[in-house]
Amino acid sequence: MNKEVWGFIDSGDCSPSFNMALDEALLDWHGAGKLPPVVRFYGWSPATLSVGYFQKIEREIDMEAVKQHGLGFVRRPTGGRGVLHEHELTYSVIVTEEHPEMPKTVTEAYRVISEGILQGFQKLGLEAYFAVPKTSSEKEALKNPRSAVCFDAPSWYELVVEGRKVAGSAQTRQKGVILQHGSILLDLDEDKLFSLFKYPNDRVKERMQKAFKTKAVAINEISNRKINLEEAKKAFKEGFEEGLGIILEPYTLSDNELDYVNTLAKNKYESDEWNFKR
C-alpha cells in the first residue's frame, strides 16, 4: 500500500514572531490546497517565553523577568499555558480536519498526531505513554488549570515518562485545518522558568516549583545517555513517519512564501496589539 507523502520543514532557530507566522502561513496554504499536510521542526532565537492565546499577561507573566533573562516573547494562536522554549525540539503538524485519518474530536485527533511523538520517544529508548485522566477530579483539573506554567500538569494524551510530562502540546482549528504544535524538552532550567510567572507570594512559588519536579521532566534527566538535538530530530522524524503511516519529504519555502511569512511576523506577531491583547 502506498504511503501518503507529507511535507517536512526543518526551520532551525528562528525568531519567535517568525515561528508563529510560519505555522499560521502553513495552516492557510494547506487549507487553500497549495501544499500537502506538513510536519515542521524548529528552534528559537533568542530563547523565548510563549503564552497561550487566552492567557492574561498582566496577571500571570513577569515581563520584567522576561526582559532580564534576554528572552523573546510571543503569544501563540493556540491555547494552553506559558512555555519557555530553550533546550528543546519544537514541532508543528498541519493537516486538514477532513483528512481520512483525523478523528473529528479535538482530543482524539490529538492522540493520533501525538502517536508520532510517542514513537519518537520510544526510538530514543524512553518508555513514553499517553496520560489519560482516570478520576473525575483529574478530569476536572484539566478543565481548570491552576498554574500558568504549561508543563505543570499533563493534559489528555500528553506524553509522559515515569509519570512525568516530557512533551507539551497545544492545538487550534481554523478554516478547516488543524494546527498542533508543541515542545519536546531536552533540558530544562526550572529556576529560570519559574522566575517568569507571577505568584501571590514566595511561599506559593516555592511550593509550586517543588511540586513541578514531580510532574515534568526533560529527556536528558531521565535518559541514560545525553541526547543531542540532531539525534532527537532523527528519532522524531522517523517517529512521525511510523506513527502517522506517512513519508516525509523536504519542502523548501519559495522567496515569495518567505516574504509573506516575514510580513505576517512583523505585522502581527511582533505587535503589542497581538501579544498583549489580554
From TrEMBL:
Function summary: Catalyzes the transfer of endogenously produced octanoic acid from octanoyl-acyl-carrier-protein onto the lipoyl domain of GcvH, an intermediate carrier during protein lipoylation.
Pathway: Protein modification; protein lipoylation via endogenous pathway; protein N(6)-(lipoyl)lysine from octanoyl-[acyl-carrier-protein]
Family according to the record: Belongs to the octanoyltransferase LipM family.
Catalytic activity: octanoyl-[ACP] + L-lysyl-[protein] = N(6)-octanoyl-L-lysyl-[protein] + holo-[ACP] + H(+)
HAMAP family per record: LipM (MF_02118)
A biological-process GO annotation: lipoate biosynthetic process
Site residues by UniProt (Lowers pKa of active site Cys): 165
Database matches in Pfam families: LplA-B_cat
Active site feature: 150
TM region positions: none
Parts forming coiled coils: none
Keywords linked to the UniProt accession: Acyltransferase, Ligase, Transferase
Organism per entry: Mesobacillus selenatarsenatis (strain DSM 18680 / JCM 14380 / FERM P-15431 / SF-1)
EC number of this enzyme: 2.3.1.181
BPL/LPL catalytic domain residues: 33-248
Miscellaneous comment text of the record: In the reaction, the free carboxyl group of octanoic acid is attached via an amide linkage to the epsilon-amino group of a specific lysine residue of lipoyl domains of lipoate-dependent enzymes. The reaction proceeds via an octanoyl-thioester enzyme intermediate.
Assembly and binders: Monomer.
One term of GO molecular function: ligase activity
Group of enzyme by EC: transferase
Record's protein name: Octanoyltransferase LipM
InterPro entries associated with the record: aa-tRNA-synth_II/BPL/LPL (IPR045864), BPL_LPL_catalytic (IPR004143), LipM (IPR024898), Octanoyltrans_LipM/LipL (IPR050664)
CDD domains associated with the record: LplA
Phylogenetic lineage: Bacteria, Bacillati, Bacillota, Bacilli, Bacillales
Superkingdom of the organism of origin: Bacteria
